[in-house]
Write a structure and sequence with these properties.
The structure holds two protein chains of two kinds. By secondary structure, chain A is an alpha/beta fold. Chain A contains 20 helices and 22 strands. Chain A is globular. Chain B has a domain of about 350 residues. In chain B, strand 7 and strand 8 form a beta hairpin. The chains are: A alpha/beta, B alpha/beta.
């Protein structure tokens, strides 16, 4: 059976590229090195939820149609629209995104990617302050302090810690995996001794407790790599951390500013900040300023919690302050595998990372005005193209309602909620499984995506579908100008 | 397709043509001896200047850093937009234009070849994706190799040939064109927030000095027979007193020169020609640098001219950009790349009334005017570090006209004016010399055989400017010079007319040039095995996923190079 090596995984922003796939009869049958999400995606690409034929809604019902007809109808909708929105893009290749932007420019619409409901506020904040960052390998080789804030990589980016941070083996910093294993082992051992002692000696637990001091030191003061987790709840990642700070929901901004004050050697005149004792914070700040290389990763818990972009402002300011004392970097934990790539392509072609409006013939950017959610909430769009995304299930209800009222075209592999309310559905191949392309890892490293199996018969990649739509739109426009001239 | 450009004043320094009235014939994208006059399309260039298409040896137009700069500065784009037309894509400026706009703006000025000077190897695909989206112009990119761990280790161990083989692999893998070295040793030190202070300051954890890196890579460059020299951004860049470092750097490779050929290119030299102990005693060190360069033939420079405007500084020199951030308190982006390099971005406003900025402006022009041989100094702004490339027409006017310089001098900081050497310099470049500093010299330094001249067999990249040197004196009519270079009368790229009267007529792909460095075969296999073995220790991507395949290049133009190892 053929085994394909060094396959990139098209699931999360970690873009692990060491996956090994076993292929049998044009299907993936075995996945090696991947996490559970990776395995699920590679093994289920032929699931029954797949759309296999283009669909057009006629009298309220979907009817199967030809690809040519679906593309013609799509092009008509887009060419006739005054203010179409083109949304999605984070689950497809940069090559497809590039064609998408050209299409948006051609039809004078608004193009936006999923960052608008994700790390959009982080981007706004970066535009205000800049971002001291690096590639993930730099953290693997050098970081002796790693902080995860408002994110749970153990669940959402399962191999992040093992490949890039605390448990990765670097040139100057060794993996903290052994320490973690020792901790787990001693915890398990402790539990066993406790229960044995209870059964044999039948003493009061408190008496035994005194003699069962843990052999490991879970202290922030120890040597080697340290992991700190800040979150509103005790996540799986927090379980592994050397130090866990449970911040009160919505109080991240306060906590960040308190840390900034402490980094700048200012006294705090309170005992608690955001529900955390100040002594704790002082210990954390000591670890921060005394490390050789620190890295802070933040997730939507910080970006979408409470103060939104102000949170990120505070986090970036903290990192700027810390750079006066030591080396410190910060990075958002990007979700979809190519949301970073979408931001990149948007930026080099239009100057802006998301929410780009072409209605005046040049790229215009004003999030809050030109962002898709706001366009929909104001009910301004009159057609919509959704590629590789499911906005109806994630947008605010009013926005989703307007989206469904628009003539809606869906391009994607699944029969998801957006597809179900669409007027035209064009099935597409899975990028990274059935179609090649490029995606950008969360640290802006471009990674090639492989085609390992053929797509179902008649199903094309997003890039090709968009190219056909674009040329059809141009054809319709040419016909129209000819007719007007005549 | 055939084309005949009639009756222009041709300036083609590589072939010694100095303003002679003659015809240029083009066939199938190349310059030819003659064409069938009745069939060929004719361009009447009577009363106009005809030059080879412009060549830019150093301009940050693509890649991770440039894009991070674009993302960082929406305010830079708001004031400068390009509408979509029937033939062109839309875009934005100003100091960091979007890719399409970059291509069009270069073409409008008559530039047809541009080198992006800083490609982090790990992110090379990104650079190439952007270069492929930069229309019309031909381009290439230099991978950053001065702080790559393999280079540091092999040079430390004195294994020059081993180092050369790895560099060759890297240039091929990244589809690069030359060895770029930025603040050698300093970027590795920046991994832990430090820097190196001098040529003999050891690099932390690696036991090698910047001097050894520079000399080592110079030798590597020779072993590989690369067409360009090493392209060096010096240590201590942007610090007062650094002209001494620049001189020391040039001196340290003096003995490696053979037959009077250049072995090192000191890029954006203005930024490393600072005299003084601090910003208050800051002064121009241009005279000392110029004296050295006038007496030696192993070095070429480019200006890195400063323009009084709001721009975005971006270099791979992480520690320097951090210093700039602490100086200005402005936005700051940093991006270190594992095992290879770093990068930093800080917006910057050069003000006429600032003593330091005005002196910097003066230094760039002093260098260009005091270095006697125009083949040794090239015109750049280190786009966008000194200012956007769209300011080239203004620099040309300053170089050609004392009057233009005086007009600007009158408006700058008085202290800077009184200390500037410019009032004492009467030299005014003519069109022949301008053709050298803007195209011929750059093409020669880059070893581009088919660019920068109009001899038979050269690529038909031609710029025609509406300025009549017979009836007008550029020194007096410097505004007309500026206008002429701002909007070329015609730009011809690969034999096709792409710009007429400053308007883009055509959106077409330009080629990406790269060096196909050929090693002897057995060592190539051994090299791959060695790299594969060590890859996982060094990087976080797989060996197979690292190289840039030719699919990433819209038009791939490999240039074969036979190496000595």
């Amino acid at each position: 059976m053929p085994v394909v090596k060094a396959v990139s995984c098209p699931v999360c922003g970690s873009l692990c590229d060491d996956i090994e796939l076993t292929i049998e009869n044009g299907e993936v049958v075995k996945v090696k090195n991947g996490c559970a999400m990776c395995e699920a995606k590679f093994l289920s690409h032929r699931s029954e939820h797949r759309i296999r034929k283009p669909l057009i809604r006629k009298d309220g019902e979907f009817v199967e149609t030809t690809l040519e007809e679906a593309i013609r109808r799509t092009a008509e909708i887009l060419a006739e629209a005054n203010y179409p929105v083109l949304y999605g893009w984070s689950n497809t290749s940069c090559e497809a995104i590039s064609v998408g932007i050209e299409l948006a420019e051609e039809v004078g619409g608004v193009i936006d990617n999923t960052a608008v409901v994700c790390h959009g506020p982080s981007l706004l904040s970066v535009q205000d302050m800049g971002i001291p960052s690096c590639t993930l390998g730099q953290i693997r080789h050098r970081a002796d302090l790693i902080i995860y804030w408002g994110c749970d990589p153990w669940s959402a980016h399962p191999r992040h810690i093992e490949r890039y941070t605390a448990f990765a083996e670097g040139r100057f910093e060794k993996s903290a995996w052994r320490g973690y294993m020792a901790k787990i082992r001693s915890l398990i051992g402790l539990k066993k001794i406790r229960s044995a002692a209870k059964r044999l000696v039948l003493k009061e637990p408190s008496e035994i407790e005194a003699r069962l001091k843990p052999t490991f030191v879970p202290s922030i003061a120890r040597e080697g790599r340290k992991l700190i987790v800040v979150d509103v709840r005790r996540t799986k990642t927090a379980e592994m951390a050397d130090f866990f700070i449970q911040v009160e929901p919505g109080k991240d901004y306060e906590l960040l500013q308190a840390l900034r004050a402490l980094v700048r050697d200012q006294e705090l005149e309170v005992d608690h900040v955001a529900g955390v004792p100040v002594e704790y914070l002082e210990e954390v700040v000591d670890a921060m300023v005394s490390c050789d290389f620190g890295a802070l990763f933040f997730g939507l818990g910080l970006t979408m919690g409470g103060a939104k972009l102000r949170n990120i402002d505070a986090a970036l300011s903290l990192i700027r302050d810390l750079n006066m004392r030591t080396k410190f970097v910060i990075m958002p934990m990007r979700g979809h595998f190519n949301v970073t790539g979408a931001n990149m392509v948007f930026t080099w072609q239009t100057g802006y990372p998301y929410a780009v409006d072409f209605s005046l013939g040049y790229p215009r950017y004003n999030p809050g005005e030109t962002s898709v959610v706001d366009v929909l909430l104001r009910g301004e769009s009159d057609a919509a193209l959704v590629v590789a995304s499911d906005p109806v299930s994630s947008f605010p209800r009013k926005a989703a309602e307007h989206l469904a009222r628009n003539p809606l075209i869906y391009v994607g592999p699944h029969m998801d909620v957006t597809a179900q309310v669409a007027d035209v559905v064009i099935p597409s191949a899975f990028v990274g499984i059935e179609a090649p392309g490029t995606a950008y890892r969360m640290d802006h490293v471009p990674i090639p995506l492989k085609k390992v199996v053929d797509p179902p018969e008649g199903v094309l990649p997003d890039e090709e579908i968009l190219r056909r739509i674009l040329s059809e739109v141009r054809k319709i426009k040419r016909e129209k100008t000819k007719a007007e001239a005549a | 397709m055939e084309l005949l450009i009639r009756n222009g004043f041709v300036f083609d320094p590589i072939n010694g043509v100095n303003g002679e009235k003659m015809d240029i014939a083009v066939k199938d994208g190349k310059i030819v001896d003659k064409v069938n006059e009745s069939r060929a399309k004719t361009i009447d260039a009577t009363g106009m200047v005809v030059m080879p298409g412009g060549v830019d040896i150093h301009s940050h137009i693509a890649g991770g850093k440039v894009n991070a700069g674009r993302l960082l500065r929406p305010e830079d784009h708001f004031k400068d937009v390009e509408r979509k037309t029937a033939v062109t894509r839309s875009g934005v400026g100003y100091s960091i234009p979007s890719t399409f706009t970059t291509g069009y703006r270069y073409a409008r000025m008559g530039w047809t070849t541009v080198m992006d000077p800083a490609m982090p190897p790990l992110e090379a695909k990104h650079t190439h994706e952007e270069l492929s989206d930069t229309p019309i112009i031909d381009k290439a990119s230099y991978p950053l190799l001065g702080d790559w761990w393999f280079v540091l280790e092999y040079l430390r161990d004195g294994k020059i040939e081993e180092c050369a083989r790895h560099v060759a692999w890297m240039i091929k893998a990244t589809k690069g064109y030359a060895i770029k070295v930025v603040n050698p040793g300093g970027l590795e030190a920046w991994g832990y927030g430090r820097n190196v202070e001098s040529l003999d300051d050891p690099v932390p954890c690696f036991g090698i000095t910047p001097r050894e890196i520079i000399r080592g890579l110079c030798k590597v460059n020779k072993l590989l027979h690369l067409p360009h020299t090493i392209h060096l951004h010096t240590n201590n860049l942007g610090k007062p007193g650094n002209y001494l470092t620049a001189l020391e750097t040039m001196r340290c490779v003096e003995d490696l020169a053979e037959n009077g050929k250049p072995v090192i290119h000191i890029t954006h030299c203005q930024f490393c020609a600072f005299k003084g102990d601090d910003w208050r005693t800051f002064q121009s060190g241009a005279e000392e640098i110029a004296n050295y360069v006038n007496a030696h033939s192993h070095v070429t420079l480019d200006m890195g001219q400063v323009i009084f405007t709001d721009t975005t500084t971006m270099t791979a020199d992480g520690p320097f950009q951090y210093t700039l951030y602490t100086l200005t308190g402005n936005k700051w982006t940093n991006h270190d790349v594992e095992t290879e390099t770093s990068a930093g971005i800080v917006p910057f406003h050069y003000k006429r009334k600032s003593y330091v900025h005005a002196t910097q402006w003066s230094i760039g022009l002093e260098l260009a005017l005091l270095i006697k041989d125009p083949w040794k100094i090239m015109m750049t702004t280190d786009h966008p570090n000194g200012g956007p490339f769209t300011a080239y027409p203004r620099i040309i006017a300053w170089l050609m006209s004392r009057k233009a310089r005086e007009a600007t001098l009158r408006k700058i900081n008085p202290k800077a004016r009184s200390r500037s050497l410019l009032p004492s310099i009467s030299r005014e470049l003519d069109f022949y010399e301008i053709a050298i500093v803007t195209r011929a010299g750059q093409a020669k330094a880059l070893g581009l055989k088919n660019k920068g001249h109009l001899g038979v067999g050269a690529d038909a990249d031609i710029a025609i400017y509406n300025f009549n040197p017979e009836t007008m004196d550029p020194a007096k009519n410097y505004r007309a010079v500026r206008r002429a270079f701002k909007r070329a009368a015609y730009t011809i790229k690969g034999g096709q007319v792409v710009v007429k009267d400053g308007e883009v007529l055509k959106h077409m792909d330009g080629a990406t040039m790269w060096l196909d460095v050929q090693l002897c075969e057995p060592c190539e296999i051994e090299l791959n095995e060695n790299l594969k073995r060590r890859f996982k220790e060094y990087w976080t991507v797989e060996f197979e996923n690292y190289p840039v395949s030719e699919d990433y290049l819209a038009v791939s133009h490999p240039i074969p190079v036979k190496a000595d190892v």
